[in-house]
Amino acid sequence: DKIGLYKYRRNKIGIVFQQYNLISYLTGLENIELAMTETDNAIPKNQYALLEKFGIVKSKADRLVTKLSGGEQQRVAIARAIASNVDLIFADEPTGNLDTATEQEIIKIFRMLTEEFGKTVIVVTHSNVVSELSDHRVVLNEGQLKDIQ
């Protein structure tokens, strides 16, 4: 109530979508930089270093996102979600379009977000692999939430 819903969303919450929702005519770096313009938070000084932390080297960061693989696009989307230095990240089926090996890499990135960056990550998924590696699991079954961990 003090800062308003829009400002709260802009400064506190990042979202990772299943379909990435990157701006196709921008590079990976430009997608990150655009997200950084929409916050009041202190932001990282070296966007290339942020992308590299997620496995996107400079040569790939400077490519149009449409020229990146699905896994690379998802890494850019995750970097974009935290580029504005938010505390909470919602991820909607973040591995739904990825192969098993890339799914494992994305799970490691989410672990890194919590362990190294101190972020809270909430993932909605149908993947048992992702679910079983979570710290806390809640299952939605016939409209009822069930805490299973």
Could you walk me through the main structural features you see in this protein, from its secondary elements to its overall organization?
With 149 residues, the protein is of the alpha/beta class. It has a single domain, classed as P-loop containing nucleotide triphosphate hydrolases (Rossmann fold, 3-Layer(aba) Sandwich), CATH 3.40.50.300. The protein is 42% helix and 15% strand. It is built from 7 helices and 5 strands. The protein has helices at 5-12, 28-36, 47-53, 58-61, 70-83, 100-115, 128-132, and strands at residues 13-16, 88-92, 120-124, 138-141, 144-147. Helix 6 links the parallel strand 2 (88-92) and strand 3.
In a nutshell, what does this entry contain?
The protein is α/β, with parallel strands linked by helices and 149 residues long.
Task: Lay out the secondary structure.
Blueprint: H1 5-12, E1 13-16, H2 28-36, H3 47-53, H4 58-61, H5 70-83, E2 88-92, H6 100-115, E3 120-124, H7 128-132, E4 138-141, E5 144-147
Parallel strand pairs: 1-2, 2-3
Antiparallel strand pairs: 4-5
Helix pairs in contact: 2-5
